[in-house]
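Record now logged underneath.
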Amino acid sequence: MVRPACNRGCGLRLTVASDPLRVARAAARQLAKLCAHSVARRGRAVIALSGGETPWSMLMALRDLDMPWDRLYVAQVDERVAPDGDAQRNLTRLLELLVTSGCLPRDRLLAMPVTERDLDHAALEYQQSLERVAGAPATLDVVHLGLGADGHTASLVPGDPVIDVTEQDVAVSRPYAGHRRMTLTLPVLSRARQRLWLVTGAAKSNALRELLDGRGHGPAIRLPREHSSIFVDAAASST
């Protein structure tokens, strides 16, 4: 059973479902609604997606909903520096779920160029790709975000200088869990018209509490609370 969304101060909206699958489906319905709103107002929707197991369930649910696939652009929030086709690449799953088994045209999936030799230059190229579809500076319609137990979001990890990047929308992190990452930075995540958080598991409960309360040290709390919807399962919401 999904508990209806409720206001949680300063514009945050919280939805709690009993388990990861139900919360993924609820998040998919909200994402479809936000995309439809963007298409109605601007003729297109430009969204950015994060990786993770629960988000893959969200994307599978999204395929069964009424989505404006022909007017949709999908960008990546972050990506591991790894070869094309690597099982750990978010792109591998996005291609499988949205293009191969879905209805998204391949040229509407904007892949982060993490196989380039000069990663800093590649990050600037990706920023330019975003600007071509979302204006300059790029203003994404919806950004889907996850939350780590350490309070990280995207690949903005505590202690990494990439957190403090203010002059670029895309940057490259230090190694984290075995990989460097290309990631959207706080400025472009903050400019997004809507942020949709998807958080599951008891290990995230403390970080979630900090996000809801707006207090703590994790990078996630540095994002605006306005125009943000948070979808969580019962395990993550228990404190």
About this structure: Residues 55 and 229 are 15 Å apart (CA to CA). Confidence is low (pLDDT under 50) at residues 1-9.
